[in-house]
From TrEMBL:
InterPro entries with a match to the protein in the record: FAD/NAD-bd_sf, Geranylgeranyl_reductase
Name of the protein: FAD-binding domain-containing protein
PANTHER family in UniProt: CONDITIONED MEDIUM FACTOR RECEPTOR 1, GERANYLGERANYL DIPHOSPHATE REDUCTASE
Length: 341
């Protein structure tokens, strides 16, 4: 997104990507209505990419299920489809694509595996993965980790998930489930590391353990083949907000602010930080000023999402959230609004 807006400001940035073929990043898969608006503003329509429309949120805790309408439709869309469209648009606007893997970053220079890349402005958008020289602090004694599987397309799965995104609440974490453009279902979990330890350090064993204790999650996991790949990432610093930065390094997306994924706003933060950083640079502002200003904008959504997350990861809190959301859907919609950026 930053590259697109820089190009529209008559700058021709270098877009440094680690892979020739766009991958399918672990986090993502759901676009909020705000994210969809930002995409349309740069000429990318979610429906044109085959995205699955989402009108309702199902909040599931034990035997309780609460349904709330989204303020406006969201979309299920894989990161592969989204990132491919964004990269294609950036190159089409005039960005120069360079394939290299960044090994470290410092003011004015990125050390890649293939070459050294110098620039007075580095827009750092490495997602939840840190780059040496720009590591975010981790302070949680029981950190969160991310796990993702992709359930293959099936008619039964489509029937269960059509038009909705599900949020399954567990002790110590949650799972979001939503259909993607090809009919598969993205299952993305944020869980405490201690839960993985209880399952012997085996992510699939952890998923099976959760399914054995949560019948509705088990109903979705019934569509998972035994040999289904499991992607994971450790020590996700949910709640992190960059208050400052090094000279010339503009932190974007999860490098700027890491919102608990149950809010469904991670992609919006990525896009809005990219657009805001490009506009700030074009206006002659420095990276430190941008980082302070974006931190202020991200503070409320992050704070509200962290509060909901901490309530949801305790079983009585999860039941309370589901009960209140079922009885008063307007409160669920208010919480959705408060976690938007």
């Amino acid at each position: 997104m930053a590259a697109i807006h820089l190009c529209r400001g008559e700058v021709r940035p270098v877009l440094l990507d680690r892979d020739e073929t766009v991958g399918d990043a672990l986090c993502g898969g759901f676009l909020s209505w705000r994210t969809a608006e930002r995409l349309r503003a740069v000429g990318i329509g979610p429906m044109q990419l085959g995205a699955h429309p989402v009108e309702t949120l199902a909040l599931i805790a034990g035997k309780s299920e609460a349904i709330a309408s989204l303020p406006s439709p969201g979309f299920g869309l894989s990161r592969h489809a989204l990132d491919t469209a964004l990269r294609r648009r950036a190159v089409g606007e005039g960005a120069r694509l360079v394939i290299d893997k960044a090994r470290s970053v410092a003011p004015g220079v990125i050390e890649g595996e293939e070459a050294e890349h110098r620039s007075e402005a580095i827009f750092l958008a490495s997602g939840k993965h840190d780059v040496r020289g720009a590591v975010r602090p981790r302070q949680d004694k029981d950190p969160a980790l991310g796990i993702r599987i992709r359930l293959p397309a099936a008619e039964g799965l489509r029937t269960r998930l059509k038009g909705r995104i599900e949020l399954h609440l567990f002790r110590g974490g949650y799972a979001g489930i939503v259909l993607q453009e090809d009919g598969s279902a993205n299952v993305c979990l944020a869980l405490r590391k201690s839960l993985l330890a209880e399952a012997g350090g085996n992510p699939r064993a952890l998923l099976d353990r959760l399914a054995s204790r949560h019948p509705r999650f088990a109903d979705r996991m019934a569509f998972a083949p035994a040999d289904l790949p499991v992607d994971s990432i450790g020590a996700v610093p949910y709640g992190f907000v960059a208050q400052t930065t090094e000279p010339g390094i503009w932190r974007l997306g999860d490098q700027a602010a890491v919102i608990p994924s149950l809010a469904g706003e991670g992609m919006a933060i990525a896009m809005e930080s990219g657009a805001a950083a490009a506009q700030a640079w074009l206006a002659g502002h420095d990276a430190a000023r941008f980082q302070r200003e974006f931190a202020l904008r991200a503070a409320r959504p992050i704070r509200v999402a962290r509060l909901i997350w901490h309530i949801a990861e305790i079983e009585p809190g999860a039941r309370l959230l589901a009960g209140v959301s079922g009885a008063m859907p307007s409160l669920a919609r208010a919480a959705m609004a408060l976690t938007r950026i």
